[in-house]
Amino acid sequence: MSKNVIVTGGTRGIGAACTEIFVKNGYNVYAIYNKDEKSAIELSNRLGCKIYKADVSNRDEIRKVISEIIKDAGRIDVLVNNAGIAGQKLFIDLEDAEWDNMINTNLTGVYNVTKEVLKNMISNHSGSVVNVSSIWGQCGASCEVHYSASKAGIIGLTKALAKEVALSGIRVNCVAPGMIETQMNSAFSEEDVREICEEIPMERMGTPKECAELIYFIASEKASYITGQIIGINGGWEV
């Protein structure tokens, strides 16, 4: 019987790569997107995944969408919390709304989705949750305090929740990507990218596919004794 996976932010970047690898491995994929409907439709047509529009920071929207997905799927085997936003700004110049938007999307979004999906996993006494944090959640980044804080929160949530639900047959892990070739990092100039890559021992950016392959492994039964872990994928940038 096919397994079911929900991927938030599942139609672009790392999320789209996750959707693709899970589809190729026989999963029914339910991809949640927020704004880029064109990319979502194109991905759905290409891979056959099901797409749902929802803002992960909006509790009511998430309740409704997860309810629809569970009604269709019956059970959720894997949840990939990938949806997120980024931003660069001096801490002193941050507007309250910018802080709130970052925390509500990146951290509260994980809370909103996981809380709804976990009810189904607990009733089935089985499930795997993989959260996507960031290298900056591990070590912090200048001019990205709000982003770093939101991603660090995901790490704390992962470690605590893993202990809480282990006896319910559920694993919770986290990946922390470094510099990855995604639209989120497209604002960097070629010179910026070159300088960053000079700091990375492997001297290159990672790819969404490399992240997706790690996420798929962690979610799979091959990683059945792995829970509560924060796994970096950054070319040796932070060890």
Descriptive report:
The structure is a single chain. The chain is of the alpha/beta class and 239 residues long. It has a single domain, classed as Rossmann fold. The protein is built from 9 helices and 7 strands. A 7-stranded parallel β-sheet has the order 3-2-1-4-5-6-7, with helices on both faces. Strand 2, helix 2 (37-47) and strand 3 form a beta-alpha-beta unit. The N and C termini lie far apart (39 Å). The model has no long low-confidence stretch (mean pLDDT 95).
Number of helices: 9
Please tell me how large the radius of gyration is: 17 Å
Tell how many strands the DSSP assignment holds. Answer: 7
CATH architecture heading: 3-Layer(aba) Sandwich
Beta-strand fraction estimate: 15-25%
Give the overall pLDDT as a whole number.
95
CATH classification class: Alpha Beta
The CATH topology is what?
Rossmann fold
